[in-house]
């Protein structure tokens, strides 16, 4: 009997006690608001952590070129290589011109005057061509080294800081063409009669002046439309 009474009392207490709801936040509006605030704050913290991680990755790895940017960088470096090859060809051609002169070309005051200018202009042309070749070859070589080593930031800084050197190299390359024309004119006075040399030099000077104006216009358009 006592056991039966004890069981009945336990049943009454359990039936009269309030049941615990695991989803109390749905029944209690205050708990639901607190949970939403906590969730929003946790979301903000997670977003902040993601941004910090991305910033750390960007700081460690630096700028990374895309495939399209890599194609443009490669085209630019190949263009610099073309300048260096052109300078090498001009230096080789000028060296052959200078090496063609002999001591017999200095016989007489008239011939020795043009022979001296021939040697001087040819030598200056060789030096300018070699300077342009070395400048563009080094810039292209170091630029490819930066890109190959995944140092894109270093490449951008290197290309920016060597802009003045590339400009002087391009001016030296243009002066090579002027030097070749002047050297050929001196050679005409050394190898041909004076009247023939004067006539050919006059025509060559007119053509060179027209070509110089065209080159100047092209350079002006490039500076205004591309490099401005």
From TrEMBL:
Keyword Transmembrane assigned: yes
Swiss-Prot/TrEMBL keywords: Membrane, Transmembrane, Transmembrane helix
Membrane-crossing residue ranges in chain numbering: 82-102, 114-141, 170-190, 196-212
Protein name (Swiss-Prot/TrEMBL): Uncharacterized protein
Region (Disordered): 1-30
Taxonomy, superkingdom: Eukaryota
């Amino acid at each position: 009997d006592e056991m039966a009474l004890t069981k009945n009392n336990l049943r009454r207490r359990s039936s009269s006690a309030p049941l615990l709801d695991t989803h109390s936040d749905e029944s209690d509006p205050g708990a639901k608001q607190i949970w939403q605030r906590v969730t929003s704050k946790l979301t903000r913290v997670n977003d902040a952590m993601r941004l910090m991680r991305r910033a750390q990755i960007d700081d460690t790895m630096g700028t990374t070129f895309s495939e399209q940017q890599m194609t443009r960088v490669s085209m630019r470096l190949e263009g610099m290589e073309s300048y260096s090859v052109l300078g090498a060809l001009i230096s080789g051609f000028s060296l052959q011109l200078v090496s063609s002169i002999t001591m017999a070309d200095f016989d007489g005051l008239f011939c020795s005057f043009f022979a001296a200018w021939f040697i001087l202009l040819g030598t200056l042309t060789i030096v300018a061509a070699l300077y342009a070749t070395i400048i563009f070859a080094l810039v292209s070589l170091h630029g490819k080294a930066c890109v190959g080593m995944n140092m894109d930031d270093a490449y951008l800084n290197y290309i920016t800081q060597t802009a003045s050197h590339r400009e002087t190299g391009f001016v030296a390359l243009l002066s090579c063409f002027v030097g070749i024309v002047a050297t050929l004119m001196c050679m005409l006075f050394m190898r041909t009669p004076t009247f023939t040399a004067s006539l050919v030099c006059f025509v060559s000077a007119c053509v060179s002046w027209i070509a110089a104006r065209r080159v100047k216009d092209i350079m002006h358009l490039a500076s205004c439309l591309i490099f401005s």
